Amino acid sequence: MIKNYFKIAWRNLIKNKFSSFINIDGLAAGVAVALLIGLWIWDELSFNKYHQDYDRIAQVMQHQNFNGEIHSDKAIPLPLATSLHNTYGKDFKYLVLSSWTNPHVLSFDGKSITQSGNFMGPDAPNLLTLKMNKGSKAGLRDPFSVLLSASVSNAVFGDTNPIGQIIKLDTINVKVTGIYQDLPHNSTFSNLSFIAPWELYADAEEIKNAETDWNNNSFQLFAQIAGQNTMSDVSAKIKDIKLKNTGEQGNNLQPKIFLQPMSRWHLYPEFKNGINTGGQIQYVWMFGIIGVFVLLLACINFMNLSTARSEKRAREVGIRKAMGSMRGHLINQFFSESLLVVFISFSFSLILVQFILPFFNEVTDKKMTMLWDKPLFWLIGIGFSLITGLIAGSYPALYLSSFKPVKVLKGNWLQDYDYRVNLSWWIFIGAGAGALMITLLTVSFQAIKAGMANPVKSLRTE
Question: What is the mean pLDDT of residues 59-78?
Answer without folding.
Answer: 92
